UniProtKB/TrEMBL annotation:
It comes from the Bacteria. SUPFAM superfamilies: NAD(P)-binding Rossmann-fold domains. Keywords: Oxidoreductase. PROSITE patterns: ADH_SHORT. Pfam families: adh_short. It comes from Nocardia tengchongensis. This is SDR family NAD(P)-dependent oxidoreductase. Belongs to the short-chain dehydrogenases/reductases (SDR) family.
Length: 278
């Protein structure tokens, strides 16, 4: 799966990095791990208090971090984020993690309110499009660097009752693959992260079907989810190896392989599960 000829490079060491959605979960774990690797980190989040807390965590371990608010749904705010980061670093960033995202689901197509479709696509897909649109020219001009886009195994898993989320993540996967090809030979690499469950706050305070379904989903995530720190470490190691795809967990790999080897059988099986729970 390696498409970039940078095997062995250590681009995540002492990287000047920008992380979106850095106030919680996977984004916070990326920011903290990058801080441990000696980089200067711009921690951004729609919730500036959460971003500040992440920056403090990095500061507590001797790292250097700057916190700022940024709603990735806004192209103007993402542009301002890039300008702020360049000012603080005194140069363009080495690494950008387009991580901010929200979870929604629990309804079937036709019953999912259009407002929810827009909400999910605005953050999960447009947020990453904005990040790639704003930062790519800057990294390309610098002639080096890496972009990490956080997708999900939902990008290819296409589980029922998660259409908006699935579509948003499939978009992030396609965007990342296209960008990787377009940046080939420029010195800038692209890595797309496609995990299954990770123990984060993604199901806190959101509507996923009824409250019982959400509570069980949150419990399942706590019991079976991988730690965000392990996900961030593994992904950054993959960036160092110039890898495009990071499909970290065994079940994510199983879904990935099934979809490639037996796509129709996979979807029929998903339909069977849907009929059982209906
Ligand atoms: N947790 C999982 O099981 C899982 C699995 C696969 C993929 N992901 C993806 O990982 C990414 C991070 O999610 P998480 O699980 O850490 O969730 P989380 O809720 O713990 O953290 C998400 C962070 O993003 C911020 N955010 C939300 N909307 C934003 C916006 N418009 N602009 C900027 N920041 C915003 C939140 O304030 C929060 O701090 C998401 O893209 C999510 O889809 C998560």
């Amino acid at each position: 799966m390696r498409i970039n000829p940078f095997g062995g490079s250590r681009r995540t060491q002492q990287a000047d990095a920008v992380v979106t959605g850095a106030g919680s979960g996977i984004g916070r774990a990326f920011a903290v791990e990058l801080g441990k690797r000696g980089g200067r980190i711009v921690c951004s989040d729609i919730d500036p208090e959460r971003a500040r807390h992440t920056a403090e965590l990095i500061g507590d371990t001797g790292g250097k971090a700057f916190d700022t608010g940024c709603d990735v749904r806004s192209l103007d705010q993402v542009t301002a984020l890039a300008n702020t980061a360049e000012e603080w670093f005194g140069k363009s960033p080495d690494l950008v993690v387009n991580n901010a995202g929200i979870g929604r689901g629990g309804t079937v197509i036709g019953e999912t309110p259009p407002a929810e479709w827009h909400q999910v696509l605005d953050v999960n897909l447009w947020g990453v499009i904005h990040g790639c649109h704003v930062f790519t020219p800057r990294l390309r001009e610098a002639g080096h660097g890496a972009i990490v886009n956080v997708a999900s195994a939902a990008a290819f898993g296409s589980a029922p009752r998660m259409a908006a989320y699935n579509v948003s993540k499939a978009g992030v996967l396609a965007l990342s693959e296209t960008l990787a090809a377009e940046l080939s030979g420029t010195g800038v690499t692209v890595t797309v992260l496609c995990p299954t469950g990770v123990r984060t706050n993604i199901l806190e305070g959101v509507s996923i079907g009824d409250e019982t379904v959400r509570l069980w989903g949150a419990r399942l995530l706590r019991w079976t989810g991988r730690s965000p720190a392990a996900i961030a470490r593994g992904t950054l190691d993959a960036v160092d190896q110039g890898r495009l795809y990071v499909v970290p967990q065994i079940e994510a790999k199983a879904i990935w392989q099934s979809k490639r080897l037996l796509p129709e059988t996979y979807t029929r099986a998903a339909g069977l599960v849907e009929r059982l729970v209906r």
